[in-house]
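Exercise 3.2. Students should predict the tertiary structure of the chain below and write it as structure tokens, then compare their answer with the key that follows.

Predict this chain's 3D structure.
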Amino acid sequence: MDKGFPFQIDEVTLAAGDNADEAFHWHTFLEITCILEGSGCYYVSDRAYEVSPGDIVIFNSAELHGWQVFQSEMRVLAMVFSDSIVAGYGDLMDMEYLRPFVGRGSNFRNRIGQDEPCAVQIAEIMQEILGEWRQRSEGYPLMIKADVLRILTMLVRHYHGDGCSAERGDPSRALRRLQPAFEYIDDNYCARITLKQAADQVFMSPNYFSHYFHDATRISFSDYVTLRRIRKARELMETSGKSIYEIAIECGFPNSSNFYRLYKKHTGESPRQGR
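Answer key:
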């Protein structure tokens, strides 16, 4: 997708002849799909949802999904987009738009039935977005973004209070999802680790990962990496005869002054006092 505006929407016809294991896939973008014609079943991770015209189905990034078409074909309107068009770095208010995607409780359902009040509204707005996408009039990205935010707000309202309150209610699930990132940090903390490198381990964009990480661990990604380095530094100060400068460099700090500053910030004492 276009890096400047990572968004796509189109009508797609799914044929019964395409039903196969190969149809299952995942991607690093968020997806909202509206069923237009026909019926079938969407499989999302370990759940199955029978769908018919008017139903809405949402998929998170890296969420494995596929389908089975019951009749000859099923026509859908599929909209995929990056969370970067919604939430910028450090903007917690913008991250609220992504609440239905960022974390889910055990009662979460990917399917919103056509009998739900918001389903009809979302379907109508998606048709408006499709018109903007095809016409490409002046300012169409702004109009599309505004409409996407309307849909996301409806999803926030729909899922609010129904037991689907994100992985805040199930912190172990969020931590399990971050496990590859933790392992990557453990293997590479002595070198320079970027937010993007860690985010890539769990198939998230950097800003999505940053907020998700903080929500799950209650500390920032940079502080987590720093504390991991300090833990190793304390171990070396207790067990080795290396100088504090040598330990600082070995544990991934760029210089001793940076090490002194961060060590005191997080432990309340200087490295010499710690030793």
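Discussion points: The chain has twelve helices and eight strands. The CA atoms of residues 57 and 203 lie 20 Å apart.
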